[in-house]
Amino acid sequence: MKNPGKTRERIVRVATELFANKGFDRATVDEIVAKAGVAKGTFYLYFRSKEDLIKEIAFDVMPIMAMPSLQDPYITVNYPTLESYLIHLGKEFLSFYSKGYRAELFFHMLSLRRRMPAVDEIYKQACSELLREGARRISAYIKVSFEDALISFQIFLASLIHYFHARECLDFSEEYFLKRVVRVVLHHLKLSVSV
Amino acid sequence: MKNPGKTRERIVRVATELFANKGFDRATVDEIVAKAGVAKGTFYLYFRSKEDLIKEIAFDVMPIMAMPSLQDPYITVNYPTLESYLIHLGKEFLSFYSKGYRAELFFHMLSLRRRMPAVDEIYKQACSELLREGARRISAYIKVSFEDALISFQIFLASLIHYFHARECLDFSEEYFLKRVVRVVLHHLKLSVSV
Amino acid sequence: MKNPGKTRERIVRVATELFANKGFDRATVDEIVAKAGVAKGTFYLYFRSKEDLIKEIAFDVMPIMAMPSLQDPYITVNYPTLESYLIHLGKEFLSFYSKGYRAELFFHMLSLRRRMPAVDEIYKQACSELLREGARRISAYIKVSFEDALISFQIFLASLIHYFHARECLDFSEEYFLKRVVRVVLHHLKLSVSV
Amino acid sequence: MKNPGKTRERIVRVATELFANKGFDRATVDEIVAKAGVAKGTFYLYFRSKEDLIKEIAFDVMPIMAMPSLQDPYITVNYPTLESYLIHLGKEFLSFYSKGYRAELFFHMLSLRRRMPAVDEIYKQACSELLREGARRISAYIKVSFEDALISFQIFLASLIHYFHARECLDFSEEYFLKRVVRVVLHHLKLSVSV
DNA sequence: CATGAATGAGCCTTCATTCAT
DNA sequence: CATGAATGAAGGCTCATTCAT
Fold first, then answer.
1. How many other β-carbons are positioned within 10 Å of the β-carbon of residue D87?
2. Does the beta-carbon distance from C151 to D107 stay under 8 Å?
């Protein structure tokens, strides 16, 4: 064993970068193994096919992975206000997609899912769960209908995602943009609150 | 001459559909010409390369194409209120991307631009112009800072785009979703109005 | 059109030779196209896959192809005696498999059919039809049970086939061997004739 | 040591089955070791190469292995008549090839010998020896020319071999078919006997 | 304008073999 | 004796593009 347990990891790492830069189709297995410094055969020792690796990497950039706090039932105790909680979620989200070419991969994944049913399925599940859970959390903070919460969370999410394909067209910093988006959502929720 | 002047158009049409379904890389020139009922050579009579056709089709699904009203200086006379105007823009946008596989192509384009500088350039321009023009229009209706208008329009746009990759995860109709998004934006703008 | 209708034919011809010499698996598409003087792509213009070409060539060496007289209803008028008819069939058979590497291909086909159901199916059909038709012809010459005719024809056929994998171990000429085999069959049939 | 001295044997056994089902080329070392439950390296501990194993297995299905009685100088004392002796030889032959995928392997071997000189050599030797020895035995029973005996034995052998690639096309049992073939041979020999 | 046979670089994948442990 | 990660040559196949007709 030359690099105990590191070969597979290295392949995934360089593949992630190549896929991000060139797209899933244009990045070749040849390039991946060359950059990873392994032989072609080694690739197929760890992955049954290029498609298998694509799936693995695509699954890892699902939006639900970007908001782990949404899964933690006790997290809200640290955030007394909805505003602080949304800011926290937003930061998680933005920093997740800012790392390791994930934003680029996310858009490649969105393009990919049309021809990879497995990816499409996972995306739809991930998306549903994310929206529903987000809405549930909002409902815990403020007394609004589930639908109002859902619309609000969707707009919140949409804006964050949009940031990644429009950031070059604007001059807002992540931080500032997030603050403004949260404000918009809160304005709406407060006006929707049932008295 | 079988279909005077129609050959090129037919190629674009079938290519659009194939690109939407299979992605720009996976749809082949062979499939395109087969479906268009022309010979391989004919394709290269109208397009210098597959990439040329891709660019042409990619350019046609830029978001700025989806809101022609934004270019028309006299359109606002028909929409006395900001709400009615945003509803109009939203309908334009949603109906544009609902037709002819444009929503699918839009996401393929977003993936594509990483490796096609020409597409990237156009997208950034289109996006900047769209956001800036949208903000300008909002400013014409209501007295808010340009930045507030920009954030609002961006959220408006982001939500509409998001609708196309989350519509399967939700139960909202286009119409209803649009109404709700406009309401969120208006809530925010009214609270941001400078008195 | 450089070689009207000849390219495909040339590929089949050189493939036949290569398959015969190296076996279906060991002869590569690269070798075939190199020897045929065409590009790799050209191969796939005429054959969907290597397997398709293999099937085509395998079908052409089925034993039934080696005895066309068996299909001709009027042929027996030229051969007044069973002996002369069997000699004729035998010559047809031996000369068929002596040409164009067919004997070698026949044995490759016999090995191949275990893993290619389509070939297996065709072989079993071809074999059944050949045996049954041969027996029917014998019955037309001499009054024996169909079973006796069947056994006789099978032994006749088996001996001819065997000639191709044992000819190097013996010193018999085709002609002489055939004469002797026919004699054996006739001896048997005459002793089996129902009086 | 898990199974003292059994590893090599197990490899041969599973390889035999895989080779029979998939052919020598299509069965891989990977499959063999997986099915044998040993590591890749272990295979190369017992065999210098895949080809070595192929040779070994190919040698074991040579037709001469199927008639051990032919090597035993005293066996004929148990079979007073030529008929009983031929029946005995035939049974030996048929039961040999009915066991352990040997019939399948025999045809793969026949295909293989074109590209493996060592196998070709052995096959020709085995075949010559078998035919000559068979003819010699016949001559010991009945007073015919060596050539008549040779032809007879060849037809006997050919029919038995043919049984293995035509049995699916007929309805004869092994036993019955053998009896009929022996009868044909005897008819011929008796008519050829020198008086 | 239109054709379609021909091209060949390049892709994904397989598999016999090696070697450090 | 035994392991299994690593290798890389070689295989089958695809596809954008050209060009003679």
1. 17
2. no
Q: Do B130 and B169 lie in a common domain?
A: yes
D30 strand F contact, CB < 7 Å: no
Q: Whose structure tokens read 């049974």?
A: D91
Q: What is the pLDDT of residue A64?
A: 95
Residue D83, φ and ψ in degrees, nearest 5: -55, -50
pLDDT in tens, C157-186: 999 999 998 888 888 899 999 999 999 999
Its domain, for residue A113, covers 61-194
Tokens representing B89? Answer: 């823009």
Question: Looking up tokens 């290295």, which residue turns up?
Answer: A10
Name the percent of chain A lying above pLDDT 90: 86
Q: Using CB atoms and an 8 Å cut-off, which of residues 139-178 of chain A contact chain B?
A: 150-152, 154-155, 157-159, 161-163, 165-166, 168-170, 172, 177
User: What is the pLDDT at residue B194?
Assistant: 65
Coil, helix or strand at residue C132:
helix
Same domain, A91 and A175: yes
pTM of the full predicted structure?
Answer: 0.91
Do A108 and A155 fall into the same domain? yes
Considering the domain boundaries, does residue B176 fall inside one? Answer: yes
Contacts of A73 (CB under 8 A, 6+ apart): none
| Cβ contact D–C (≥3 pairs, < 8 Å) | yes
Q: A158, A162, A152: which is closest to A188 by C-alpha?
A: A152
Q: Looking at the structure, do residues D65 and D143 belong to the same domain, yes or no?
A: yes
Domain identity same for A11 and A97:
no
3-state secondary structure of B103: helix
Q: Looking at this protein, which amino acid is placed at residue C164?
A: F
Give chain B's mean pLDDT. Answer: 93
